Amino acid sequence: MCTCPAWATACAPPDPAAALQPSLSFCTFAMRNTMPFTLYTFAMSHYSEKIRWTLDTAGVPYQESVMTPVFHMLPALRMGRRGQTTLPVLEGRGQRVQDSPRILDWLNREGLLSDLIPNAHVAEVRAIEDRFNRIGKDVARLLYARSFGKADEHIVRLWVEHASPLQAAVIKAFYPVIRWGFRRKLNITEAAARRAEQRIGQEVAWLESRLTDGRTYLVGEQLTVADITAASLLAPIACPTEHPVYGDSAFREAMTEATAPWRHSAAMAWVRAMYQHRRGAMQGGVNLMRQAA
Ligand SMILES: N[C@@H](CCC(=O)N[C@@H](CS)C(=O)NCC(=O)O)C(=O)O
């Protein structure tokens, strides 16, 4: 629900993304105008979580703008200017950058990630980031494949959680059509879901082999974007308590069939431990917005 006083709305900058997110509160408006960066996300997106976690750990002040599926498309297309509708998009210092590896490149060039991408290990860290990025779509594909038709009520709840009343009404009314669109866009078929499960299984096995020597971090002796990417992209399967979406018992229940093969694996135990010990607070406001919704 919009709680902006009239004067605040009247002096708001012409922001296409904000115009499509009328549920932003006055708090959000005020923060956006003092925060150097705005991160456009979906609350449940694991790629968004990767950048959220990176910004939180690097101590980069940012405001999170949580978008609603379908309504994100036009702003994401405009902001990204790459013919893509994906989130996250990071805005700041006069730029808008889409795509999580490109966002990391940019932040690194700005000198903000020297601890998370240490000079001595750049190639190895980025290679591990890349291998887990590659299974991100498979994770989404598998989760939706196993929950569409069984946990639709929870999926609708997730999609409308940060929506305006009008957006929520549209999502609810057209859910079957939107679900069909998702199926097509993500190529959600039984065969594709089985291939996704296989590819995720390979990366889970790789992660476990990497951890057999008892190490905490995937590269070197400190947290890097390799750990953040692996943990974030697998978080919808590990369902760590600390995450506002994946830690919800209703999410765990809705995704139980998809997550079953790895629920008790050492890899998921590592993801949960990373969340418990290294994730820290989400500074951008995703939790605050959730409480206010
Ligand atoms: N390569 C992109 C992938 C991001 C991505 O697939 N994001 C999903 C959410 S997890 C998305 O925005 N899907 C909606 C769309 O494609 O319109 C990245 O690393 O940022």
TrEMBL record:
It holds the Pfam family GST_N_3. InterPro entries: Glutathione-S-Trfase_C-like, Glutathione-S-Trfase_C_sf, Glutathione_S-Trfase_N, Thioredoxin-like_sf. One of its GO terms (molecular function) is transferase activity. Residues 35-115 form the GST N-terminal domain. PROSITE patterns: GST_CTER, GST_NTER. The keyword tRNA processing does not apply. It comes from the Bacteria. CDD domains: GST_N_family. The keyword Transferase applies. Keywords: Transferase. Gene3D superfamilies: 1.20.1050.10, Glutaredoxin. Residues 149-293 form the GST C-terminal domain. It comes from Aquabacterium lacunae. This is Glutathione S-transferase family protein.
